[in-house]
Amino acid sequence: MDVNITQASQRTLQPRLFWRRVFAYLIDMTFLEFLLALVALIIPLNFGIPLFESTQCGEAASGPLVEKVEREWPLKLGETRVNQICRSTQFWGQESTFFQTTVITGNSGGQSVSWRVLSVALDENGELAHGTADLIGPLVGVFLVLLAFAFLTANGRRTPGKWISSIRVVTTEGASPHLSEALKRELLKFSPWIAFVASDSIVAAIASNQSLDDMIHAARDGTAAAITPILIGASLFILALLWWLLPLIRWRGQMFYDRFAGCEVRRTRSNSG
Questions:
Q1: Which of 51, 211, 215, 219 has the fewest CB atoms inside 10 Å of its own CB, making it the most exposed?
Q2: 6-47 confidence digits (pLDDT tens)
Q3: Rounded to an integer, what distance in angstroms lies between the CA atom of residue 191 and that of residue 185?
Q4: C-beta of residue 58 within 8 angstroms of C-beta of residue 85
Q5: What's residue 112's pLDDT?
Q6: What share of the chain is helix, strand, coil (3-state, %, to 5)?
Q7: What are phi and psi of 199, to 5 degrees?
C-alpha cells in the first residue's frame, strides 16, 4: 500500500522546468537591475549592481600606499606581490576607486597555492577614504529586488521573465499567491543573497573603523580579522549551493523555499498567456 502511494505521489510531482526558470530569472534580474540603475539616478546610493558595473585595474608601481604596504608587509621566500589601483564605474557614471594589494604564495613548481588580498577605498584625491556611506546601498538594493519580485508574483501577476517563459508561481492548491505569501517565498528564495550582502556590509563596517596599519597586519599575519570573513563567505557559498541546487538534483516537486511557502512553479497553457 505504501509503495503504491509513493509511486502515485511521484507521478504527480511538478516538473523541474529548469531551463525555463533559469531563462525567466535572467530576464527578470536584467529588468530589475535596469530599474535599480534608474532609481540610483535619484537616490544617491550604490546598490552594487554587477550587470551595470565595470571595473578596470592598473598596476600601482609607486606611491604612499605602495611604500607603506611594502614596508609593513615584507615578502617572504616564495611570495610575490601585485599592487593595483582599480576604478569601478556604475551605469549612471558614478565612480569609486580602491587600492588593492595581493600577495601570492607559490610552491617550488611555480604554481600559486594561496593568496591574500587587502583592498581599501580611496577618495577623489587618491587618499584613504573614511566613512560607511555606501554600506547600506547593497542591502537596500536586495530588498527592493525582493519586494519587486513579490509584487509581480502576487494576485495573478507574473514577472516579465515568467510571462515570456510561460510559467507562473501558484500555491499548492493551484491558486495565485497573495502578497504575504509571495513575500514569504521571495524572502526565503533570496535568503542566501541577503546573508551574503549583510555579512559583507558588517565586515566593511568593521573595517571602516580599523586603521590602515591594523588592516595590513591582519592580512599579513592571517589573523582572525582577515580569515573570518573568508570562512563566512565560503560557508555561505556552500549553503547557497545546497539551498538552490540540491532540490534540483533530488527533485521532490518543489524548491525548499516553495515548500516552506506553500507554493510551486507550473507551466501555463499557451492559450492562457
A1: 211
A2: 444 444 688 999 999 999 999 999 899 888 888 888 887 777
A3: 10
A4: yes
A5: 55
A6: 50, 20, 30
A7: -65, -40
All cell numbers assigned to 101: 594589494
Contact 47, 140 (CB under 8 A): yes
Q: What is the reported pTM?
A: 0.78
Cell numbers representing residue 239 in the block: 549553503
Please work out, in degrees rounded to the nearest 5, the angle formed at the alpha carbon of residue 171 by the alpha carbons of 165 and 177: 85
The residue count for the chain: 273
Instruction: Give CA–CA dist 126/132, Å, rounded.
Output: 17
Crossing angle for the helix pair 136-153 and 179-189, nearest 10 degrees? 140
Residues ≥6 apart with Cβ < 8 Å to 261: 177, 181, 184, 185, 188
What type of residue is 127?
E
| ∠ Cα 199 264 14 (to 5°) | 125
Max Cα distance, the chain (Å): 77
Q: What is the Cα Rg of the chain in Å?
A: 23
Q: Cβ atoms within 10 A of the Cβ of 176, count? A: 16
C-beta of residue 262 within 8 angstroms of C-beta of residue 10? no
- What are the φ/ψ torsions at residue 122 (nearest 5 degrees)? -120, 150
Cβ distance 203 to 226 under 8 Å?
A: no
Residue ranges of the chain with pLDDT lower than 70? 1-12, 49-52, 91-93, 107-112, 130-134, 224-225, 270-273
